[in-house]
Design a protein that fits this description.
By secondary structure, this protein is of the alpha+beta class. A hairpin with a 2-residue loop joins strand 1 and strand 2. Helix 14 packs across helix 17 and helix 15 packs antiparallel against helix 16. It is a multi-pass membrane protein. It is found in: Cell membrane.
Amino acid sequence: MSKSTKGIWKVITASSMGTLIEWYDFYIFGSLAVVISTKFFPADNPTAAFLSTLATFAAGFVVRPFGALFFGRLGDLIGRKYTFMVTLVLMGGATFLIGCIPSYETIGYLAPFLVLVLRLLQGLALGGEYGGAATYVAEHAPKNEKGYWTSWIQTTATAGLFVSLMVILATRSVLSEEAFDTWGWRVPFWVSILMVYVSYLIRQKMDESPVFAKAKSEGKTSTNPLKESFGNKYNLKFVLLALFGATMGQGVVWYTGQFYAMSFLKTVMNIDSSQVDGLLGIALLLGTPFFVVFGWLSDRVGRKSIMMVGMLLAILLYRPIYEKMYQTTNVAHKTEMAANTASGDKIEKQYTDGTRLTETTFTHEVHGVYKTETKKVLLINAHDKWMLIFLVWIQVIFVTMVYGPIAAFLVEMFPVKIRYTSMSLPYHVGNGIFGGLLPAISTYLVTNAQQSGDAQFYLEGLWYPIIIASVSLVIGMIYLDKKINTLHD
């Protein structure tokens, strides 16, 4: 290993570990959305509580662009290193405190209010983290290898989600179901503080980006990054092009392939939560290396072609994939065994292929009216599990195609002195607004279609990512030019 390569691996390790932890912190909330909805929101309407949780989850995404502006400005003024050390501490503290908030039953509406405030702080922190880490690594990488080296940072978002799922599974495995539901769900939030401390110690020893340090020593840094990024028509054109021609589509593909897939499996297909976490974890583990593959390939064939193909495949294949997912476990197509058991409000059904379905009926009051609902939990067999792993893995491949090259693509679009600010905003609007709103919007579309009696209600949530990705694909194909990414090498 050459000295230069050894040096960049140190940079990637330090940057990636901190970024992974920030994604872990951010996604613990989403991974536990079903549980959180019962803790911090009124229990009289489970559907409304879950939608409120998704809305709170989305709020963290909505404020990410503001974090990008605030911390991006700091990063271009004082440096990359110190800025994303601050974001790391802010994220870790907010995540830990979410795990400490008393339940709705204890403090009433103060609980969802505090969760929302801390969720907003998480979003602000992540808004400043990603741009700093991607810029920092890119500015250490050799000129013609930026796609390869920055793709390692791209793995951290998926790895953070994977680690969050594994910590949740480990916590569930050592606690009883009752203990996890009572207090054990808080453990993954508490664990993050230890991870943040270790990462802080590692980052503290890092040096400033050599490219930024050189610009600063020569007096070439920006005095007003916000004005130069967005007040300059020439640069603003590239900011808008990056957003509408790339990150907007990339954002919805990312969240469909990972977060919406998880939500769909749990809430639409009613599969047992632990089984979903396990199969999603396997799909993510198998798919993650392809971030590096497509990042490396983008150095050779260009960023645009890989990202555009990824969007096109997602647009064409989402509906067939989700149709296959839904029908794979649809008990209407399975043979029910005669020996079913009933106990009070609970009925357990078994099927000849090994599938088991538990239906629990309960009554709750909504605005003075009593409603009876049935909660279904499906335990799937090994064959169905591997089929679902394959179908989620395909979606993760789409994610790696659009996301693997995006960091290098954005870094190369903007000059050093305003790079942190300029690249962070389109990235976080595309991912935070368009991508972050996806779980809430798609779940609402599915719920609305189901209530209206649509036979294919389970596919309605896909219209949002398909439309957004289609718009981005058209703009990207027409207006993105390969020459853009050689302007600031």
